[in-house]
Amino acid sequence: MGKLIEVKNLKKWFWAGSAFGGRKQAVRAVDDVSFSIARREILGLVGESGCGKTTCGKVILRIHEPTSGKIFYDSEDITHIKRKDLIRLKEKMMIIYQDPFGSLDPRMTIGRAIAEPMEVHKTLAKGERRQKVMDLMEKVGLSSDQINRYPHEFSGGQRQRIGIARALATDPEFVVADESVSALDVSIQAQIINLLKDLQEEFGLTMLFIAHDLSVIKHVCDRVAVMYLGKIVETAPKKVLFSDPKHPYTEALLSAIPIPDPKKRKRGQILMGDVPSPINPPPGCRFHTRCPHVMSICKEAEPDMIGLNDSRQVACYLYDK
After folding, report:
1. Going along 169-242, which residue ranges are E strands?
2. How many other β-carbons are positioned within 10 Å of the β-carbon of residue 248?
3. Share above pLDDT 70 across residues of the chain, in percent, rounded to a whole number
4. Are the beta carbons of 7 and 60 closer than 8 angstroms?
5. 57 pLDDT band (50/70/90 cuts)?
6. Which of 39, 66, 182, 268 is buried deepest, with most CB atoms within 10 A?
7. Long-range CB contacts (< 8 A, 24+ apart) of 137-146?
8. Cα Dmax for the chain
9. Strands 3-16 and 68-73: what pairing?
10. Contact, 197 vs 220, CB < 8 A?
11. Could you tell me the domains of the chain?
12. What's the rounded Cα separation, in Å, for the pair 312 and 245?
């Protein structure tokens, strides 16, 4: 399968300044990130809160403009395409938001909310939109009889199903699922995860699945990219990463996954200290302030992403030959 999405040296910096006229400083939310997603693949992007996962997804969709770097969609450079071309492209690229209630207009019926992308992109005639909306509602596990209800009349899980239906309204090829189950109860999470997997297979979707919960990533994704403080530190197929993590940060994340068996004890690796500020990241490897294997070179120079084999890449001096 060829690549549908590819990003090269992608950066997104936000500028923060003092309210009293102080010097502006760059918040390095995404800082020199490169990866690709094959057609029909689900790539999991995982890391602690604030590491830049959501910003990365929104920059790919051009919700945020990149500071530098390149974004390719089906081999087409879309980094700086014109507005009319961007509108055409966004028909093929959609997002499922973390907060299902916040992403819906409380004054708009869910039928109108789901149909809105079709109206914007003019994908169907007005008379055909209602039937498409009803079909999508049935696909995501809602009754089409609820088409004229408002968001406040639904539970959190049902509202996320509405968000999924809206994301599928224009028959996209690429979907960013931004922490799409983190705000839901655990029992509802399982339902939404299974729904996403079924829809991905049925519609042949390519997905960037953003999450901080590795147990969810393990169930959903084909390949995983681990992000720390604006940088990708390791990428690998799911089975490879979970069975044999290489980067010390990945090891720490995996050790924190609870085992649902009270008879089994698991000794987690506790990371010391807090995540540094993206305004003033540490020199060298950004993880060196918390790494149990830190060496002098880690504090001096940033490690390159190196390939350990055909399927895995890691940015760590432990594996730099």
Report:
1. 174-178, 206-211, 223-228, 231-237
2. 22
3. 93
4. yes
5. very high
6. 66
7. 137/110, 137/165, 139/165, 139/168, 139/199, 140/164, 140/165, 140/168, 140/195, 140/199, 141/191, 141/195, 146/110
8. 67
9. antiparallel
10. yes
11. 3-92+172-319 (3.40.50.300)
12. 10
Give the model's confidence band at 83: pLDDT under 50 very low, under 70 low, under 90 confident, else very high: confident
Give the integer Cα–Cα distance in Å for 219 and 211: 12
- Coil, strand, or helix at residue 84? helix
Q: Supply the DSSP string of 143-163, one letter for each residue.
A: -GGGTT--GGGS-HHHHHHHH
Q: Which one, of 153, 151, 216, 149, lies nearest residue 184 by Cα?
A: 216
Half-sphere CA count of 248, side-chain side, radius 13 A: 20
Q: Model's pTM, two decimal places?
A: 0.91
Distance CA 302, CA 298 (A): 7
Alpha carbon distance 200, 206 (integer Å)? 7
Please return the burial class of 304, using the count of CB atoms within 10 Å of its CB with bins 0-12, 13-18 and 19+. exposed
For residue 270, the one-letter residue type is I
DSSP character string of 116-152 = HHHHHHT-S-HHHHHHHHHHHHHHTT--GGGTT--GG
Give helix 110-121 / helix 83-90 axis angle, nearest 10°.
130
| More reliable by pLDDT, 186 or 146 | 146
Using DSSP, state whether 81 is helix, strand or coil.
Answer: coil
- Closest by Cα among 49, 58, 27 to 228: 49
Relative to beta strand 76-77, strand 68-73 is: antiparallel
Instruction: Find where tokens 């879309």 sit.
Output: 78
Element holding 36 (H helix, E strand): strand 25-38
